[in-house]
Amino acid sequence: MKTYTAGISNPDDTKMPAGYSSAIETHELTRKFGDFTAVDSINLHVPSGRIFGLIGPNGAGKTTTIKMLTTLLEPTSGTAKVAGFDVHSSSKEVRKRIGYVPQMLSADGGLTAYENLMLSAKLYGMKRSDRKARVEDALNFMNLSESSNKLVKAYSGGMIRRLELAQAMLHMPSVLFLDEPTIGLDPVARRVVWERLIALRKEYGMTILITTHDMEEADRLCDEIALMHRGKITISGSPADLKTSVGTDANLDDVFVHYSGGVIEEGGNYRDVRKTRRTANRLA
Amino acid sequence: MSEKHAERQTGWLSSFFLVEFFRESLAISEVEIKKLLRDPTELFTRAVQPVLWLVIFGQVFSRVRGIPTGRVTYLAFLTPGILAQSVLFSAIFYGIAVIWERDLGIIHKLMVSPAHRTSLVLGKAVSSGFRGLVQVVIIYVLALVMGISLRWEPWAIGGVLLSVVLGSAIFSTFSLVIACIVKTRERFMGIGQILTMPLFFASNAIYPLELMPPWLRWFARFNPLTYLVDALRSLMIQGGHSVHSFGFDLVVMVSVFIVFLLTARRLYPTLIQ
User: Which end is more exposed in chain A, N or C (fewer Cβ atoms within 10 Å of the end residue's Cβ)?
Assistant: First the structure.
């Protein structure tokens, strides 16, 4: 496993405290919006170096959970530690140690891939002397070196996603949060993203938390999965254990239907649908 | 640790904080400026309005001679007002771009970075200042073509540039605050239209404050555009007269900017919640 420290002003800034093995730990984590409880007392434990999947129907609370873990949203009650730091009291320490790929295609289309990464390098406080090398390494890792000076608006959806992964891994975070990273991608682009995620974990030992509606993706990538429904975690375990819990020939689709009550669509709102459609439009 | 050593360390830390803070702000403003230069259409379309105001409104009202403008012609009196107006109009819709960036997830990524949130807001304000500087060039060229006597002393030009950057920063940050409150582009368009005209007409941009009824004059005194125009009037035009000293106008503008900056810093995270 590579330990990459070049470019970081203080390499310890992106690492977890010594002796700490839990990448993500929540205790009764809750978020309410008025009377509505989006996330209801969830307890998560994600050991370091794992790929952890959060699945569930629209409106189950996955994105709200990610927002709390990435310090974008304050929990109403309960606690959460990411990379060994409390998301409420040490939010800046958490932010130094995480990378985030939101559901929307968020790379700036008006900039080149190189410029997008350079912006991140500056915001993450990388040393000037190391920025260029680090950016080039990240582009290389995501197979984007040849198109690094092209404006991102000319990229395909799969390339944008790889660029966003490059942006999220640039500072070598301990934990990566990916909110539906392959939504709207064609099967080839999707597989390339999977392959890069597996390489990220293998080569750099990053912990990855991924939300997805794609059960094939969850099955292939995740060491452990938690299924959220109505803000609660209804079951968690390895993909194999979850399948066994439903039946001998069950797949993750069956697990999903079984534990989310078999309701095809009950959650999500107009904003979620609009967000997803916008991502799809950018990919078209 | 000795007190002296601790003091030295605190000083080092605070200067490191400032370096970090300004590096982040510059990084944000640099990419904004890069994008603007790559597609400068907006800069040219923004130039149309001041041209119309000066060439049509200015020329017609110069003939009226009903507006007391001191030692200068009405056209010369109007020129700094139109520069301030174009600064206001190009900065006040900045919030829409921020809402658009929120919808694309760009703001989410900036917020997850360890960059100071105030520096993210300041970076946006600085890039808006750059847009304001482009307006300066447009208005100066236009004024020259129309035969208006401008001041060319370096300190006067420096004062104009500083005032315009500050004015742009004030209105773009104000726009960001509004964006954080209304949250959608549709609502912002409505609010933006409602805000722009009162800010413009309740200022000294196209007529002196003395012509206003007392209630409107009272409102104009709380309008930052009034202080931008006041600063520009004596700095830009030969024989131009400002009601307040440049120092006073500057203090008012800096104070207003700090209030908006801190408010925007507080509200910015709510844009993505």
Answer: C
Domain edges within chain A: 24-106+173-283
Q: B106–A108: do the CB atoms touch at under 8 Å?
A: yes
**A122, A165, A272: best mutation site toward chain B, by most B Cβ within 10 Å?**
A122
pTM of the model: 0.84
What one-character DSSP code corresponds to residue A142? T
- The predicted-structure confidence for B108-155, as pLDDT tens digits, reads as follows 999 999 999 999 999 999 999 998 999 999 999 999 999 999 999 999
Task: Centre a 10 Å sphere on the Cβ of residue B241 and count the other Cβ atoms it contains.
Answer: 14
Asked if B34 and A71 come within 8 Å (Cβ–Cβ), the reply is no
**Does B23 contact A122 at a Cβ distance shorter than 8 Å?**
yes
What span, in angstroms and rounded, lies between the C-alpha atoms of B257 and A133? 38
More confidently predicted of B145 and A105: B145
B5 found inside a domain: no
Residue B16: inside a domain, yes or no? no
Homologous superfamily of the A24-106+173-283 domain (CATH): P-loop containing nucleotide triphosphate hydrolases (3.40.50.300)
Domain extent, residue B34, equals: 26-272
Q: Is B4 part of any domain?
A: no
- Specify the pLDDT at position B180: 95
In this predicted structure, what is the pLDDT of residue B68? Answer: 82
Count CA within 13 A, CB hemisphere, residue B262. Answer: 5
Chain position carrying tokens 């794609």? A214
Return the residue matching tokens 């990379």.
A83
Q: Report the domain count for chain B.
A: 1
